[in-house]
Amino acid sequence: MTERHMSYRERALSLTRDRGIARARDFKAAGIPLVYLKRLTDAGDLVRLGRGLYQDPERVGEDAAHNLAEASRLVPNGVVSLISALRQHGLTTQLPHAVWMTIPHKGRTPKMKGLRFEIVRATGEALSAGVEHIRVEGVDVPIYGVAKTVADCFKHRRHVGEDVAIEALRESLRQRKTTPSELMKFAAIDRVVSRMEPLIKAIQ
Fold it and tell me: Which of 31, 48, 72, 161 would bridge with 141, disulfide CB 3.0–4.6 Å?
């Protein structure tokens, strides 16, 4: 292997380690010819997760956290929400069968072999409020905080199940991961005050 080829390999692997999951455009921006991605994949130095998405093979996992990282790289305008967010916050015993994300109304529905999505759409504050950021496998993952996630579950109760929303509300207060006032703030944004307020009063 020539010195130039070795340099491309080292730069590609370094980029992937730094980013957790790297896109083809990331390699291109770093001056790495895309032809080397196939060579690195064939050699087992990289794992191709899907079209234009690559990862260090030592960091590939099948757990829910890995899927959140993968989804966030694939859907940069999306926010992890609902069941996936509940699971991350320790507010449900359910194991998500897919990655739940909220995307803008006109956002493109993501498709990726081997990764299932449950998509809901929102605009304005219902989309932008309550977003937090966590690091998973070196990837910045936008995710709704506890109070916003609980309010979203009531807003989308037909999608997730009202029992799930009530369990999340009860657990969020029992575990002291949020407060009644914070829950009411996001209930107002999601227009579910009439649903949540009586339950909050009953649980307190």
Answer: 72
State the Cα angle at 92 between 90 and 93, rounded to 5°.
105
Give pTM, 2 decimals. 0.70
CA atoms within 13 A on the CB side of 86: 25
Q: How far apart are CA 129 and CA 155, in angstroms?
A: 14
d(CA 84, CA 98): 8
Asked if 13 contacts 46 with a C-beta cutoff of 8 angstroms, the reply is yes
| CA–CA gap between residue 138 and residue 86 (Å, rounded) | 21
Report how far residue 170's alpha carbon sits from residue 47's, in angstroms, rounded to the nearest whole number: 41
Strands 47-50 and 21-23: unpaired
Q: What are phi and psi of 4, to 5 degrees?
A: -65, -45
Considering only CA atoms, give the Rg of the chain.
Answer: 20
| Residue pLDDT, tens place only, 50-88 | 667 787 777 654 467 788 988 998 898 999 999 999 989
